[in-house]
Design brief:
By secondary structure, the protein is mainly alpha-helical. The chain contains 20 helices and 3 strands. A 3-stranded mixed sheet has the order 1-2-3.
Amino acid sequence: MLPSLTNQDCKEQHPLTFEWAKIIDIESDDNISLFAQVSTYIVPSLRNQCVQLNASYKELFEKIDTDNNNKLDPQELEDAAKNKTIKQTTANYIVKHSSEWDDTTNMADVLLKIFEQHEDEFSDIEEIKKHYTNQKERITKLSFFKECKGIEGFPQDDMVYHMNVVGLVGEFGGCKEILSKELLKKAFKNATTERINEYHPVINNALCLYKHSDLKSIAYFLGQASAETGDLKYKEEMASGSLYEGRASLGNTQVGDGKRFKGRGMIQLTGRTNYEGFEKYAKENISKYSTLDITSSDDNAQKLVTNLELNVLASLWYWTKGGKGPRIQKSILTDDIFWISVYVNGATTQSDYYYSTTKLTNKAGQKIEPNHMKVRVERTNIAKTALGV
């Protein structure tokens, strides 16, 4: 007999990947089930009533209800079954609902009672009653829940979880632990155990989501992140961001952009262009962030600090898929840590240069290099040693 697996078990074993699913429980007290309002669909005099939906269903309902009449007609349901976006949405649902294989909640009986209460509105009521009476008896005969309650691990009532098993297996089957806590502790040598435990599932989830498993690239990422965050101590840069005000190269063309789009994340995402780029990518490619807004206000931009998952996802997006992502990955192939650091941090004049030779100059001909270059080299070497690359 397979061991019982609970919702809490999944959350503990996959604390972030499990958030891909929307848990919908009919036992909620907010009338979530469409069945609870089925009379508004089948009784002519009730069809003008608006269907009240729980927020969990609202997004899906609006996608299916293409004519916006607050009703779902047969053609809309047929079209929805063929719609890729809708199928992707419903594939992420895990719904706790009564099973058709138990007659505790016999849907045919529910419908039969509705027709009987409004029989004067149906010209063929006798045929309808005959049909649903037969259906009620069929469901009763097919029901097996009561007989199976004695089996170890079998549900004790008809309220069971319905899910897309292909989506579920695909989600969990494709997600593996790439970096153990021990490896992260070696890479972020000054990080507290609390920080390692906090970041461990989030980093692994982001790597899985982006299908990024190249250990050399990951080592360089951890090295730069170590320098940027002080070994996971900081989630955003300490400065106000005023130095970025009006920086067209960062896309900061509106008043207040410097502060709003200052550096946040493991690899500090900076500038309107990068914030808008990640927001667009997340909306189009990460279902749970299909309505993400990190650009319309200072508070929304701060989500890259308050939401650790976004903090890491935005950083890894910049590292692999952002405007400079391809150049970063190309530089990793040749172990060019100078240019990797330039793409992450930029370059400016320094009071104490790490490199004795001039690798890059500004428009005035002055020697420039990334901030804290010595730390970036040291932390990257630590991460590379930890990962064995």
